[in-house]
Amino acid sequence: MGLQFSKYQGLGNDFILIDNRHATQPVITTQQAVAMCDRHFGIGGDGVIFTLPGDQGTDYTMRIYNSDGSEPEMCGNGIRCLAKFIADLEGIGEINKTYKIQTLAGVITPQIQGDGKVKVDMGEPQLMAHLIPTTLTEAEAKVIAQPLEVANKEWLVTCVSMGNPHCITFVDDVEAISLSEIGTLFEHHPVFPQRTNTEFIQVVRPDYIKMRVWERGAGITLACGTGACASVVAGVLNDKCDRVCLVELPGGCLEIEWSQTDNRVYMTGAAEPVFTGYYG
């Protein structure tokens, strides 16, 4: 019958979810993941997410292959989809259920809420250049409003790691940005040795921003959870945003809080099942 899968989406960021609890390694290869993500010849998705057994006291382990076959450390919209997928696998209808999920970016704790949303403790943002990583400035310095030349234009960028690298720049109009032309130039810029996700941000109000994103390994997507978190952090660092902020993405809105109390970033947003089936 082929490989059983479920498809979930979080603000239009769509993923193929595979129940991988019986094995400690993903049951398919990166090449197979690329084929599954193809929107014409496969299922279609921004990535394939595997639910693996927990490790070191966690409930489960998350692995993800991007649509280009690369493996990111974390995915914000993806982990919300994973939490809903796990709850569905377990047949749990209760709210406020919290999972400890091991990721390549550390332990992340999503909580199923009663309004159909998932709140995720995304951990503390990393701001030092060598942790992002980037060579834009000295290793132990923060990258805030640093000039970067891309496509014969100087951009002021702020860099944040949410377990994965982000390059944020503030613009007057996000719709005027030609993502398809410049996104890959940011991603593959030599100052980012592990490539980068890139967010273009329009500040509507201090508590409300608009965002478009070019994701490392996936290109243009309708939403990026870690990117929304990184963008609010960048907004606070540049005195443009409040610590509690609504982020509007093409696929919908995320509620982001960079807590002044514990320095952790909290992301709340929707995650919904789309369909299930067999592949191959």
Short characterization:
By secondary structure, this protein is α+β, with helices and mostly antiparallel strands. The protein has helices at residues 30-37, 76-90, 179-187, 225-237; strands at 3-10, 13-19, 47-53, 60-66, 97-98, 101-103, 106-112, 117-121, 146-150, 153-161, 165-170, 197-205, 208-215, 219-221, 244-249, 252-258, 265-270, 272-279.
Report on this structure.
This protein is 16% helix and 40% strand. By secondary structure, it is of the alpha+beta class. The protein has two domains: 3-121 and 270-279, Roll (Diaminopimelate Epimerase, Chain A, domain 1); 129-263, Diaminopimelate Epimerase, Chain A, domain 1, CATH 3.10.310.10. A hairpin with a 2-residue loop joins strand 15 (244-249) and strand 16 (252-258).
Task: Describe the secondary structure blueprint for this structure.
Layout: E1 3-10, E2 13-19, H1 30-37, E3 47-53, E4 60-66, H2 76-90, E5 97-98, E6 101-103, E7 106-112, E8 117-121, E9 146-150, E10 153-161, E11 165-170, H3 179-187, E12 197-205, E13 208-215, E14 219-221, H4 225-237, E15 244-249, E16 252-258, E17 265-270, E18 272-279
Features:
18-stranded mixed beta sheet; 4 helices; single chain; 2 domains; alpha+beta; Diaminopimelate Epimerase, Chain A, domain 1
Order of helices and strands: EEHEEHEEEEEEEHEEEHEEEE
Compute the gyration radius: what is it? 18 Å
What distance lies between the first and last C-alpha atoms, to the nearest angstrom?
7 Å
What share of the residues lie within helices?
Answer: 10-25%
Corresponding CATH architecture of the largest domain: Roll
Number of helices: 4
CATH class category label of the largest domain: Alpha Beta
Number of strand segments: 18
Shape: globular
Strand content: 35-45%
* CATH level 4 superfamily of the largest domain: Diaminopimelate Epimerase, Chain A, domain 1
Reported for the largest beta sheet, the result is: 18 strands, mixed
Q: What fold name stands as the CATH topology of the largest domain?
A: Diaminopimelate Epimerase, Chain A, domain 1
**Total number of distinct structural domains:** 2
Determine the mean pLDDT: 96
Structural class: alpha+beta
Poorly predicted parts? none
